[in-house]
Design brief:
The protein is an all-alpha fold. The protein has one domain (about 5-60). It has three helices and no strands. Helix 1 packs antiparallel against helix 2 (about 35-60). The longest helix has 28 residues, at about 35-60. The radius of gyration is 14 Å and the shape is elongated. The mean pLDDT is about 95.
Length: about 70
């Protein structure tokens, strides 16, 4: 799969939003078994770190600094 460079900021911010959502969900009192959510959160955070490292390689081509996306 190849993702266009211009779409990577959207991908990064979407995954970041998903991480934040999961963090808020884990703080919720409505979830009984948090283990599945914790695993999902872990995978999302690892994916976000991977995306950030990959983005650093093309940051100058895209023209949008990573810190402005996050």
């Amino acid at each position: 799969m190849e993702i266009p460079d211009t779409w990577t900021p959207l991908l990064i911010s979407s995954v970041r939003d998903a991480v934040l959502y999961q963090e808020n969900l884990l703080r919720s009192e409505t979830i009984r078994d948090k283990s599945d959510y914790e695993e999902h959160h872990l995978q999302l955070t690892q994916f976000l770190e991977y995306l950030k490292e990959e983005y650093k390689k093309i940051e100058s081509e895209v023209g949008l600094p990573l810190n402005r996306i996050l």
